[in-house]
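Is this the right way to post structure tokens for a design question? Let me know if I should format differently. Anyway, here goes:
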């Protein structure tokens, strides 16, 4: 995998469309979108929650992270002609669910990690009880953002809530995390490992794409293609994460490197080896581009560039 031209966030500066015709400036597009997301998160994650809870919530969410999930929501919404207000709320809601999951994942009862996004984890900074509550509050806030009194049609609100709940719950992220915890020291087959990561990591990434499309008017065929794109991208993200866990250092990753091997967790590298894991990531990237081409949407350049960034990233 060629790292290509990356900006300071590890994002590829330009990427061709699946047809290879027009360059797309991902760095500029991402900066514009992230300004919207960061401003909205800063406004909606309130510091006034009681007893220091708001401070812990903001610490967990603001000033860090790749924001891949919000970018996928906004890119899919752009491709599908989505409502801007619905797309922004969906982008922030997905990020809040992701942030809450990281807060809980890092706690001593789960992965017991002390570093996240280049700074101490929330339970290290604020204590375990406050971290637990911060995660709970962020999860609730996510669904609050999807149900404003106006600006988003009620049917769209309900659909977005249903998609996010399914991706975050027992049939998605939480279920995958349960399998992950139960698999420490267990030799999984490739199919079992793939299923675990489809739930733990892939479900929320796939939901980001589908939620963005749900803010617009994509046809059933286009939505099916975007769903396939999201599935390939979600799995590719985890494969690359497994690769980086053994090839990058903690300073680059912003989290503890080598943690999976030290915890005896099954990974794509431990199962396939480094070279085959890299080849698998490249195949998933090709699958993602093929799905975008099959969508026949007029402009999927942002989604194509994000897929390239996921596989070619350095952290």
């Amino acid at each position: 995998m060629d790292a290509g031209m990356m900006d300071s966030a590890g994002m590829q500066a330009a990427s061709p469309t699946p047809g290879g015709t027009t360059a797309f400036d991902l760095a500029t597009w991402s900066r514009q979108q992230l300004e919207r997301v960061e401003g909205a998160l800063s406004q909606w994650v309130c510091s006034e929650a009681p007893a220091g809870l708001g401070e812990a919530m903001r610490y967990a969410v603001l000033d860090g992270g790749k924001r891949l999930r919000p970018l996928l929501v906004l890119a899919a919404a752009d491709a599908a002609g989505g409502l801007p207000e619905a797309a922004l709320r969906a982008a922030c809601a997905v990020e809040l669910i992701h942030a809450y999951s990281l807060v809980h994942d890092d706690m001593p009862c789960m992965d017991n990690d002390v570093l996240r996004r280049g700074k101490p984890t929330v339970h290290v900074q604020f204590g375990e009880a406050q971290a637990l509550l911060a995660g709970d509050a962020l999860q609730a806030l996510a669904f609050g953002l999807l149900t404003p009194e106006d600006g988003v049609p009620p049917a769209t609100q309900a659909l977005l809530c249903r998609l996010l709940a399914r991706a975050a719950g027992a049939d998605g992220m939480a279920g995958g995390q349960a399998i992950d915890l139960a698999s420490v020291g267990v030799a999984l087959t490739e199919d079992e490992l793939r299923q675990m990561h489809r739930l733990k990591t892939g479900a929320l990434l796939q939901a980001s794409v589908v939620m963005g499309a749900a803010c617009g008017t994509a046809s059933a065929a286009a939505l099916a293609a975007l769903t396939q794109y999201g599935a390939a991208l979600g799995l590719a993200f985890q494969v690359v994460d497994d690769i980086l866990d053994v090839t990058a250092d903690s300073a680059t990753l912003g989290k503890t490197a080598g943690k999976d091997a030290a915890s005896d967790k099954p990974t794509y590298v431990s199962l396939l080896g480094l070279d085959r894991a890299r080849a698998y990531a490249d195949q998933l990237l090709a699958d993602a581009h093929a799905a975008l081409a099959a969508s026949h949407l007029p402009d999927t350049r942002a989604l194509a560039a994000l897929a390239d960034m996921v596989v070619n990233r350095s952290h």
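Format looks fine. Someone answered above. Worth noting: The longest strand covers residues 14-15. The chain is about 65% helix and 5% strand.
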